[in-house]
Amino acid sequence: MTKETNFWRRAWSKMSWLLPTLALSGLPICGQADDVEYAIDDANQLGTIDFETGVFTQLGTGQIVSGGNIGDMARPVGGLVYLTPVNGTLALVNPTTLQASTIGNMPANIMGIAFTASGALLGVGYGGTTLYNFNPATAAIQSTVTLSGTGFTGAAGNFDLKSDINGNTYLLTGSTVIWSVNVNSGAVTNVWQSNGAYYLYAIGDEAGRLYGFTTDGHIVQINLPGGGQTLVSTETSVSPIVAVCNGGVTASQPTLNIQATNQNSVVLTWLAISNQFQLQHNNNLATTNWTTMTNLVKVTNSLNSIITLRTNAADFFRLMQP
After folding, report:
1. Are 197 and 59 in a shared domain?
2. CA 20 to 30 Å from 322, out of 12, 168, 178, 201?
3. Of 185, 213, 245, which closes a domain?
4. Residues 226 and 123 in one domain
């Protein structure tokens, strides 16, 4: 019994070999959002967190990346988990295999990162007033804007950066204040302030609702603008949650992409999180002669890729889960 997913296929004719080009930059842009939220607790343990119940399910044991504590984590729609260890690097983690790889160096004080709905990777440094736009494939700084607004003095104390599905970006500072951020102009506006009942380590978004993760291990819903907070649940993790992210890809439904490399070959790519799927091909859809491909799979920045020669008048490809 097999499960077929994204039966996305492309045939070609030898008389006309040019295929439409897909935009495959360093950041994977295929996939669909899911309801899984990942979190890291104060002991650097990676797991999933249910906002409504507070249940934390640890993934693996031990620290996920070396080089110090985790500053923050973020996930683009259609991507894996990006982490910022305090050693000044940007790391990529596959939450299925728990394999981590370093993408590149960032300023050492970047401890707040977030992906916007459009796929931009933003970052803020400790004590800073600069909002960075990073290349997620290299960690290189692409642009900056200065954050400013009434009462804003910088990202001090426990701070966090998050963007939601509605295009809003929020910055938590000093555990007690949340600012709305205009990512284009850098203007910040105070939209929430703690009444002293809770102090926050991190903030996170779920379905357009903003949540806070408190220093004493609770989850509260932030009532914007300025409407206080509502206690939702108590975290089950041994240590309080200090970073969360969501908005990634459903591992059971990867998207298969195809792109011509030259007149004689094509490259097929899909998210590396989907290692349980096999790439198969067939040159005649009237038959069931699907064959698992044995080409060498290369993994680059969370994408699996295979290059195959174009030897038939038509070929069809699919990802199958045994």
Report:
1. yes
2. 12
3. 245
4. yes
pLDDT per residue as tens digits for the range 14-36: 222 222 222 222 333 333 444 67
Distance, CA of 66 to CA of 146 (rounded, Å): 31
Q: What pTM was computed for the model? A: 0.70
Terminal Cα-to-Cα distance of the chain (whole angstroms): 7
- Residue span of the structural domain in which 256 resides: 3-27+251-321
DSSP 129-193: -EEEEE-TTT--EEEEEE-B-TT---S-SS-EEEE-TTS-EEEEETTTEEEEE-TTT-BEEEEEE
Q: What is the mean pLDDT of residues 278-293?
A: 88
What gap in Å lies between CA 265 and CA 257, rounded to an integer? 14
Q: CA–CA separation, 147 vs 130, rounded Å?
A: 6
Cβ–Cβ under 8 Å, residues 302 and 138: no
Look at residue 33 and tell me if it is in a domain. no
8 Å CB contact between 217 and 240 = yes
Residue pointed to by tokens 């973020």: 74
Domain count, the chain: 2
